[in-house]
Amino acid sequence: MDVNQLLDALGGTAAVAELFGIKQPSVSEWRKSGRIPDDKLIRLAPIAEARGIVSRKELFPNDWQAIWPELADMKASVAVGEGAHV
Fold first, then answer.
1. CA 2 to CA 35: how far, in whole Å?
2. Cβ–Cβ contacts within 10 Å for residue 17, how many?
3. CA distance 26 to 36
4. Domain ranges in the chain?
5. CA-to-CA distance for 10 and 74, rounded, in angstroms?
6. Nearest residue to 67 via CA among 77, 57, 82
7. What pLDDT does 65 receive?
8. Which of 3, 27, 77, 83 is the most exposed place for a label (fewest CB within 10 A)?
9. Mutual orientation of helices 13-20 and 24-33 as an angle, nearest 10°?
10. Could you tell me which residues come within 8 angstroms of residue 59 by beta carbon, excluding any fewer than 6 positions away?
């Protein structure tokens, strides 16, 4: 998913600017550059995931565990729970 697709899926430039409390030209610059600053993308990722747009793991395939260690913990606890018998 590219920057434009993600921004559109989140409601467009105005909606994303409102999420951050910033002006629309800032988000338009992301579209022009084809890149959302990492600090903003980290904040957008859980929103996109909650809306079923894209997962945090897909947006940060190489370092999602460092950013959201709770996801790695959840994966480990699910694996442990699958083998448990009550």
1. 9
2. 19
3. 10
4. 3-61
5. 26
6. 57
7. 92
8. 83
9. 120
10. 1, 41, 45, 48
